[in-house]
Amino acid sequence: PAFGLFIFTIARDPLRIIILIAGAFFWLVSLLLSSLIWFIAVKASDPQDERLQKGLLIFGVMFSVLLQEAFRFLYYKLLRKAIEGLVALSEDGCSPISIQQMAYVAGVGFGLMSGAFSMINLLADALGPGTVGIHGDSQLYFLTSAFMTMVLIFLHTFWGILFFHGCEHRRWWEITAVVIMHLTVSGLSFCNPMYVGSLVPSYLLMAAAAAWAYLLSGGSAQNLRRFLLCKC
């Protein structure tokens, strides 16, 4: 379903594809920088100290989240400049794409790249050695990982809309809410292998973020009800 966002809403528009690819690149750069800092920290520490290594892992996850949101802000600033250039070049003085549409496409770009890396790591684990659940652990590792990947893709999409709206209207509390939600979802991953403790709250946050993004995009409860009832 997540990749359907690209096929049905982005694939036919060349400008949206460029924005999506650029957004994916920004997420990739943030991952590269956070991974580099975490790698240096691990190499400079005592590998035998399990408590320290766990602390460094938590630090790496939290730092990666903050860096992703910092790059999301940089990407917003870049797209804002791009809109000004498009308006200056257009004959009618209007941009061919709105900031709300850019926010959506940029969010999908962040989400798809995040999902792609999650799937790569998952497939790498699937190659072995070993068998999932052979020592009595849960055999739902791959299934829950797939559901977690999907929720992260959707969350990045909604976070993009909320974050850009906050930047556009200088509502810093909206930006703060996005950062807190991102930190919360990433922190919930430490609940594994108790997958219910990470999946259920993540999906509840996704539902809340989806409703919030829908309302900020101009949606209404009446329109949603008419859509669900298939009424024109």
Automatic annotation (TrEMBL):
ATP-binding found in the keyword field: no
GO biological process, one term: protein processing
The protein's role, per its UniProt record: Potential subunit of the gamma-secretase complex, an endoprotease complex that catalyzes the intramembrane cleavage of integral proteins such as Notch receptors.
Similarity section: Belongs to the APH-1 family.
GO cellular component, one term: gamma-secretase complex
Stored InterPro entries: Aph-1
Subcellular location: Membrane
Source organism of this protein record: Hylia prasina (green hylia)
Membrane topology: Multi-pass membrane protein
Protein name: Gamma-secretase subunit APH-1
Chief localisation class: membrane
Keywords on record: Membrane, Notch signaling pathway, Transmembrane, Transmembrane helix
Quaternary structure (record): Component of the gamma-secretase complex.
Transmembrane segments: 17-41, 56-75, 102-120, 140-165, 172-190, 196-216
Name of the coding gene: Aph1a_0
Entry annotated with the keyword Transmembrane helix: yes
